[in-house]
Specification:
The complex is a heterodimer of chains A (88) and B (381). Chain A is mainly alpha-helical. Chain A is elongated, with a radius of gyration of 20 Å. By secondary structure, chain B is α+β, with helices and mostly antiparallel strands. In chain B, a hairpin with a 7-residue loop joins strand 4 and strand 5. Chain B is extended, with a radius of gyration of 27 Å. The two termini of chain B are 16 Å apart. In chain B, 27% of the residues are buried. Classes of the chains: A mainly alpha (88), B alpha+beta (381). At the A-B interface, helix 1, helix 2 and helix 3 of A face helix 1, helix 4, helix 5, helix 6 and helix 7 of B.
C-alpha cells in the first residue's frame, strides 16, 4: 500500500515531463553504427574463450545504464536546482 | 518543509525513476530478440542454378506479414498465384518454386526504377552480388506450388487472453501435420507486435519422429513476456534436411497458425502475491506482520505505470541515445564465428586460461559493484 502510493506519486509527478519528452522525434543513428558493433563482435570472438570479453561488455553496459545516465543526470539536476535562489 | 528540502525530495524521486528506468532497460536489452540486419536466403539442390544471397530483414519486419503474399497484389502481371512477393522502398522481390526439385527455390529482384518483366535480374545474376549474412540465418515463410504440397496441417494454440509482465505464460495446444516427411519440427515465433520485438522461444517440437506420432499431438511450453503490450505467436512447420553433401536447404517453412494476446495493465506485473500468515486468534505479533505485509507489498500497478512512462521516452532524446548505445553493446557477440581462431590444447585451457578467465570475471563484477557503491556514496542528496 505504502509503496504503491509512493510509486503513484512518482508517476503523477513525472507524467507531464515524460509526455513533453515523448513529443520529440525518435533518436536515429546511421546504420553503419549497428554494423560496426557486429564487425567488432567478429574480431573479438576468438578472444572470448580465454578472456572475459562478453562479461567486459556486460559490465560496460551496466556502467552506461547506471552511472552515466542516472548519476550524471542527478548531478546536472542537482547543479541546476542549487542555482535557484534560496536553495543551498 | 523548506524549499531546499522540497527540491531535494523532487530530485530523489527523479533519481529513483531513472534507476527504475535503467533496471527496466537492462531487462529489455539483455533479451536476445533482435533481428539480424539481413535475412539469409539459401536454397540449393546441387543444381547449377542454385543460388545464395541475402535480403534485408526489414522485409520481414515491416513489409511482410507471415505466410504467403501473392505477387498479384503487387501488380505483377505474370506471376503464379503461389509465388511469394516482398517489397521494400527500393526493391521488389519475388520468390518462387523453380520446379524439378522439392527444394528448388529461386529469387528474382526488381529495382524500383525497373519495370516488372522487362528488367529482371535472374537467379544467377544475383549470385555473389550480395554478401552472405554472417549474423545467423532466418527463414522466410514460403508456400510453394507443386512439390512439396501445401500442407493442410493445423495447430491450435491456447494462450491466456491477458497475462502479466515477466510471468511465465503457459502456452499449450495440439497440432496435426499432414506431410511429416517434409518437416522436422514445429517452430514458434513470438513477438511483441507494438515494438516488433521478437521473443525467444527455446522449445521446438519434433514432428518427424520414429515411430510416427499419433495425431493430434499435444504440446506446451512457457513464454516470458518482457514488455507491456500486444503479442503474436506464430507456428511454422520447418524442414532443415540437408539436401546434399555440400548444400543445405532450410527454406521449407510453412506457417500453420497464429494467435494473439496481450499483457494485462490492471493487475500486478508478475510479483508474488502477499504472503499473509495464518494467525492464531490472540497472536498480535502475527497480525502486526500481516499489517506490514499489506502496507509494504506493492501490487505492481505502480511499476507498470512507470514502465509505461519509460517506454514512451526510451527512444526519445536524450534517453534514445542511451538505448542505442546499450542495444549496440548487447549486439556485440563474442561467440560469433570468426575467420580467426586459436588452437589451444584443451588441457592448457582447463589448467590455465579457464581459471584466469573466471578470476578476471569476478574482478570485473567486483569492480562494477565498487564503482556503483562509490557513486551512490558520493551522491550528495
Amino acid at each position: 500500500m505504502i509503496i504503491d502510493i509512493l510509486l503513484d506519486f512518482i508517476y503523477v509527478f513525472l507524467w507531464v515531463p515524460v509526455h513533453l519528452i515523448a513529443l520529440l522525434p525518435d533518436v536515429t543513428v546511421d546504420s553503419a553504427f549497428a554494423s560496426a558493433f557486429e564487425t567488432a563482435g567478429h574480431y573479438l570472438a576468438p578472444f572470448n574463450s580465454f578472456l572475459p570479453i562478453h562479461e567486459l561488455f556486460d559490465v560496460f553496459t551496466l556502467l552506461v545504464v547506471y552511472v552515466i545516465t542516472p548519476y550524471f543526470t542527478f548531478k546536472i539536476l542537482n547543479w541546476a536546482i542549487r542555482k535557484i535562489p534560496g536553495v543551498s | 518543509m523548506t524549499k531546499t528540502t522540497a527540491c531535494r525530495a523532487v530530485l530523489g524521486l527523479l533519481t529513483a525513476f531513472l534507476l527504475m528506468f535503467g533496471i527496466a532497460h537492462i531487462a529489455q536489452a539483455s533479451y536476445p530478440g533482435s533481428m539480424p540486419s539481413t535475412v539469409s536466403v539459401t536454397c540449393s539442390t546441387g543444381d547449377n542454378e542454385c543460388w545464395s544471397t541475402s535480403i534485408p530483414a526489414q522485409i520481414m519486419n515491416d513489409d511482410t506479414p507471415w505466410g504467403r503474399y501473392q505477387c498479384s497484389s503487387y501488380g505483377v502481371p505474370s506471376s503464379h498465384p503461389d509465388d511469394v512477393c516482398y517489397a521494400t522502398a527500393d526493391n521488389w522481390w519475388m520468390i518462387y518454386w523453380a520446379g524439378v526439385f522439392p527444394n528448388h527455390w529461386a529469387i528474382w529482384k526488381y529495382d524500383s526504377a525497373s519495370v516488372w518483366g522487362s528488367n529482371e535480374s535472374s537467379v544467377n545474376d544475383l549470385n555473389g552480388t550480395y554478401d552472405q549474412v554472417s549474423g545467423g540465418t532466418h527463414g522466410i515463410p514460403l508456400i510453394g506450388s507443386g512439390t512439396p504440397p501445401a500442407p493442410t496441417s493445423s495447430i491450435t494454440m491456447l494462450t491466456p487472453s491477458a497475462t502479466y509482465l515477466y510471468n511465465g505464460v503457459p502456452v499449450s495446444g495440439y497440432y496435426t501435420v499432414e506431410s511429416p516427411d517434409y518437416f522436422d519440427e514445429i517452430i514458434f515465433n513470438a513477438k511483441q507486435t507494438d515494438m516488433n520485438v521478437s521473443i525467444n522461444i527455446p522449445d521446438q517440437f519434433i514432428v518427424n519422429s520414429s515411430p510416427p506420432p499419433t495425431y493430434p499431438v499435444s504440446f506446451s511450453f512457457s513464454l516470458t513476456l518482457p514488455y507491456q503490450g500486444n503479442y503474436s505467436l506464430e507456428a511454422y512447420l520447418y524442414n532443415s534436411v540437408t539436401a546434399s553433401t555440400s548444400d543445405v536447404s532450410n527454406l521449407l517453412i510453412f506457417g500453420i497458425g497464429t494467435t494473439t494476446f496481450s499483457t494485462s495493465t490492471d493487475t500486478q506485473p508478475g510479483m508474488p502475491a502477499p504472503n499473509y500468515l495464518s494467525c492464531a486468534t490472540l497472536d498480535v505479533g502475527c497480525y502486526f506482520k500481516n499489517a506490514l505485509t499489506w502496507a509494504f507489498t506493492p501490487n505492481g500497478s505502480g511499476l507498470n505505470n512507470l514502465t509505461g512512462l519509460g517506454d514512451k521516452i526510451k527512444t526519445k532524446p536524450p534517453f534514445g541515445y542511451l538505448k542505442i548505445m546499450t542495444d549496440g553493446l548487447q549486439t556485440i557477440d563474442p561467440n560469433a564465428t570468426s575467420s580467426i581462431s586459436f588452437n589451444i590444447p584443451t588441457y592448457i585451457m582447463t589448467l590455465f586460461f579457464t581459471p584466469i578467465r573466471t578470476g578476471l570475471t569476478w574482478i570485473l563484477y567486483i569492480f562494477l559493484a565498487v564503482v556503483i557503491i562509490k557513486r551512490l556514496e558520493h551522491a550528495q542528496i
